Amino acid sequence: MAVDRDRVLRSAAALLTRKSTATMDEVARAAGISRATLHRQFAGRDALVRALEALGIEECEAALDATRLDEGTAQEALRRLVKELERVAGLLAFLYTENQLFEGEGQNEGWARLDARMAALFRRGQEGGEFRIDLSPAWLTEALYGLMASGAWAVTEGRVAAKDFHYMIVELLLGGALRRE
User: Measured at the alpha carbon of residue 143, what is the angle toward residues 21 and 76, in degrees to the nearest 5?
Assistant: First the structure.
């Protein structure tokens, strides 16, 4: 029987988002496979996390592509971006706190691509007079990641309704980022 790697990764992401300390045994159970089968797919936790990172970057890049960042105002594009990223927010929440992904020289260059595209959106908003210029595009990008992760955790824990995710993220970010007269 062939193992659906994508299904295994999504099961692992769902579990690790809720319980970041889950063991490989727990990941295997969540995916409905044996530990041996999981280890044939991923040699260990590091390999699993790296595969989740690749999936997360791929999905975030697809969300950025679907957003049409250059269309309309920067505010409109940001609203579309949050909507597109919402479906991967749980995975993003897990990856955002995985320190091993951001240590050393082996950092995946996909993060730099994502950061650059998001920062360009914020820079466009600043240059167009929509966003504050005293907050750097890099900081606004990190704020977006942080809000996405926090929102995903709040929804996962049942502290916030999933239907409110988009509104909460956009309103809080824009409430702090919009340029005031």
Answer: 125
pTM confidence score: 0.85
The DSSP annotation for the chain comes to ----HHHHHHHHHHHHHH-TT--HHHHHHHHTS-HHHHHHH-SSHHHHHHHHHHHHHHHHHHHHHHHTTTSS-HHHHHHHHHHHHGGGHHHHHHHHT-GGGGSSS---HHHHHHHHHHHHHHHHHHHTTSB-SSS-HHHHHHHHHHHHHHHHHHHHTTSS-GGGHHHHHHHHHHHHHB---
Model pLDDT for residues 91-144, shown as the tens digit of each residue? 888 888 776 666 666 677 888 899 999 999 999 999 999 999 999 999 999 999
